[in-house]
Amino acid sequence: MESKPQRLLSLDFFRGLTVAAMILVNNPGSWGHIYTPLEHAEWNGCTPTDLVFPFFLFIVGVSIAYAMSNKKLDSASHNKTILKAFKRALILFGLGLLLAIFPRNFSTFDFVESLKNIRIPGVLQRIGVVFFISSVIFLKSSEKTIFRIIIIILFTYWALMMFVPVPEVGYANLEKETNLGAWLDRTILTEAHLWKSAKTWDPEGILSTLPAVATGLFGVLVGVYLKRKDVEPATKIAWLFSVGVFTTLAGLLWDLEFPINKALWTSSYVLYTGGLATIVLALSYWIIDVNKYNRFTKPFVIYGVNAITVFFVSGLMPRLLNMIKIKQPDGSETGALSWFYQTFFVPYFSPINASLAYAIVFILFFFVILWLMYKKNIIIKV
């Protein structure tokens, strides 16, 4: 009889904290009024918001090590496990495409035209791809091989971005529209299928998904080590803190030559964010799983057990609500969610605090729904 995968409360806590942060930064009341830590870096650099996505991919990797460790030992089940992982990746990719195509206004929606212009890359799409590739590598490779793959990915990506001349430009560079990744996205996907805010490049593009896989594999190695039964918790914590500090510093040093950049998902960014994620998980493990201080974890665990579901619905719901039009005194119409923000937040706070207060209420609203699901043991696995 197959034993159930061992659960780590600190991992559930970390996942919930991360997805709640995702929703916070993705749903301000006004994109024109956001506190600086809740914005992405303009290009190079890393704000707290830039940590959220790599933390989630890191957690995906740790979860793979916990969920698939028994299956890794049974080579006969590898193909079945890989097929399940592929189906899950397809679902994630499909949900991302659904968010991209879902109309903001049914009255002007043209399905055929939307397919011609749908953005193909995206957050859920990248999660699906990283999950699948990391799963296959975990099942088929030893820890030493996984480590070597990470190193190969990071240095290969560095060499491609820093030394390969970009066609039509003539030289290697790291600028928004003229780097190798942007050229590849425009060539393969065309501008019609890229991020609508740029159209000439995509922050979840094809080439930058390669180092994103390294982020997932980083989490896999941390998960494998955490799951070891022959190592004392104190030793695990000491090693994880050491690895976290070392890789964070390595990322900062590499930043001097290959800048930390979320949109490009540079190799220095992988090391920097992976190191910080390792430190956060090690600290959480020490406090929650080792010392059993866990009363504060429940709200985040509630978010964590339905992480993908709440992320997807939080992206879908604003579009649905804004299809409901409310008439204004001047005769114009506005979406229901916009009306809610303008009516209950804007008059009572400064612009930037109104925007933040709205985002916090958004998180609390979903917490109530997730809490009811948790009480009824409703877990939607994607």
How would you characterize this protein structure?
The protein has 382 residues and is mainly alpha-helical. The protein has 2 domains: 1-27 and 296-382, no CATH class; 40-292, no CATH class. It contains 15 helices and 2 strands. It has helices at residues 9-26, 52-67, 69-73, 78-101, 111-117, 123-140, 143-163, 180-188, 209-227, 233-255, 267-290, 298-304, 307-321, 336-344, 351-375, and strands at residues 325-327, 333-335. The protein has a two-stranded antiparallel sheet with strand order 1-2. The chain is globular. The model has no long low-confidence stretch (mean pLDDT 92). Residues 41-93 form the DUF5009 domain. The chain crosses the membrane at residues 12-31, 51-68, 89-106, 118-139, 146-166, 205-225, 237-254, 269-288, 300-321, 355-374. Keywords: Membrane, Transmembrane, Transmembrane helix.
Task: Summarize the SSE layout with pairings.
Layout: H1 9-26, H2 52-67, H3 69-73, H4 78-101, H5 111-117, H6 123-140, H7 143-163, H8 180-188, H9 209-227, H10 233-255, H11 267-290, H12 298-304, H13 307-321, E1 325-327, E2 333-335, H14 336-344, H15 351-375
Antiparallel strand pairs: 1-2
Distance between the termini: 25 Å
Question: Helix count, per DSSP?
Answer: 15
Number of domains: 2
In spatial order, strands of the major sheet run 1-2
